[in-house]
Amino acid sequence: MSARLPDQLSAMTSDASPAPPGKPTLTLHYDEDDIGLEKRLLFEAENPAGALEIAAGEAAGRTARLFVDGMPLCSLLKADEDNPYWIVAASAARTSDDPISKSTEEVP
Predict the structure, then answer these.
(1) What is the 8-class DSSP label of residue 9?
(2) 64, 76 in Cβ contact below 8 A?
(3) What confidence tens digit (pLDDT) does each residue in 24-77 have?
(4) What does the alpha-carbon distance between residue 68 and residue 23 come to, in Å, rounded to a whole number?
(5) Which of 68, 77, 94, 95 could form a disulfide with 87 if both were Cys (CB 3.0 to 4.6 A apart)?
């Protein structure tokens, strides 16, 4: 037999606002190149700028494609080890329904 909740407590639990949306899932996808093997880094961040902190640990001169919740956003390239500069390019067109597992082509 369950006890009935007081009206005040019942009203508090039924009027609770929905949970805030979660952080976006970001993916940095590095292709296999002469600097290293193919690599995907999947993480959550407040915004896409958080990807720069993650990418800072990668080798300079290596390009990564950045995806937000599975959708391509841009390409990132760390200029060099001595200068904290980034080169950001528009995202490339997708060639399949799975934007992360297939290669992309440049938009003409």
Answers:
(1) H
(2) yes
(3) 999 999 999 888 899 999 999 999 999 988 888 888 888 999 999 999 999 999
(4) 10
(5) 77
Ordered DSSP codes for 21-44: PPPPEEEEEEPP-SS---EEEEEE
Written as six digits, the tokens of 45 are 């961040």
Structure tokens at 37: 């093997």
Q: Determine the Cα–Cα distance for residues 27 and 72; give it in Å rounded to an integer.
A: 9
User: What percent of the chain has a predicted confidence (pLDDT) above 70?
Assistant: 66
Close Cβ partners of 48 (under 8 Å, ≥ 6 residues apart):
24, 26, 66, 68, 73, 74
Element (H, E) at 11: helix 7-14
